[in-house]
């Protein structure tokens, strides 16, 4: 017997793509249909909401997508309905418009009771603004390879990015050892060092440089020399794209002028490798892992986490508990106010046990004094 229609939901994916997005979409659609909701899939994040680009989803739309990377809905890390880049003036300056009314109208026209936003800090901030300024019901799902969201112990996608970076470090080890080189691996993470820290520990890096601990190049050089004195002719360094020297600046790869937060980080790895080679005379090379961290199939851990998050987001709608983000705490999925989830990004605590463990193992974080 057909269950009575319970209500109408919509789902979108926002920000940089991330392994596990399709697994969340699948879980959202399957759970929603299971409970008698109808569900719209919105194309290309908030862009689709502004352009009224959405369609009803069925089980066949999500068939076979569990292990697939990317997002079948498409995404963007530029569009913000409150600050929409509508074009350029004759001088080439971007013209921004507030499109919140269009978004509210489009949601209303489709009878959408709640919008499920799968995104990182930027997308969840927009979701929070839609709730507080436009009275739209939202439920957030914490997405990002960067793991930089507050109020959750894990974002989905991080485990896959960490696994990719760890494999890269394993591969760099063998070539570094053969050529007696210093190998630098630059990983993503924006202003947080989670990917660098965890992959650095898992991949046996000798130096880990993260945004939370500004580094002193002298300390890095001392570590490389110390290894040489101990007969280790190669060294491996993991550097987060947001790492910077003490008193120095971030290294910026490009500015995306239509983006609300236009800075795109990158380039610190190459800079570091050049400086190390100049200072030590040891051949040094940099590898930038880049979008390989975001592309491709999610790990089993991320598939499970994504599935739990997707189902939990619909369960929140079922309970009519809106304006929350589903979150992982003590291995249980709980709900936290979206206002908290959209607050300050979560960085690595410099006194965390994993940093301490790294130090005890002799890993340099680039901040050791000569006598340490
Ligand atoms: N601090 C902010 N306040 C408001 N909007 C933001 C903020 N940061 C980012 N955004 C918007 O959110 C979108 C997605 O953010 P981004 O950081 O790229 O992805 P994510 O959702 O993964 O964090 C951006 O294109 C931008 O329009
Ligand atoms: O896709 P772009 O614009 O190059 O953005 C790169 C940024 O996106 C990320 O890959 C993921 O960040 P978000 O989860 O905030 O989208 C960052 O690690 C990186 O700094
Ligand atoms: Mg972000």
TrEMBL record:
Catalytic residues, chain numbering: 146
GO-annotated biological processes: canonical glycolysis; fructose 1,6-bisphosphate metabolic process; fructose 6-phosphate metabolic process
Swiss-Prot/TrEMBL cofactor(s): Mg(2+)
Reactions it catalyzes: beta-D-fructose 6-phosphate + ATP = beta-D-fructose 1,6-bisphosphate + ADP + H(+)
Broad class of where this protein is predominantly found: cytoplasm
Swiss-Prot/TrEMBL keywords: ATP-binding, Cytoplasm, Glycolysis, Kinase, Magnesium, Metal-binding, Nucleotide-binding, Transferase
Domain Phosphofructokinase: 9-316
EC number: 2.7.1.11
Residue positions binding substrate: 144-146, 181, 188-190, 241, 285, 291-294
GO CC terms: 6-phosphofructokinase complex
Keyword Phosphoprotein among UniProt keywords: no
Coiled coil: none
Complexes and interactors: Homodimer or homotetramer.
Family statement drawn from the similarity comment of this UniProt entry: Belongs to the phosphofructokinase type A (PFKA) family. Mixed-substrate PFK group III subfamily.
Protein name, per record: ATP-dependent 6-phosphofructokinase
Organism: Acidaminococcus fermentans
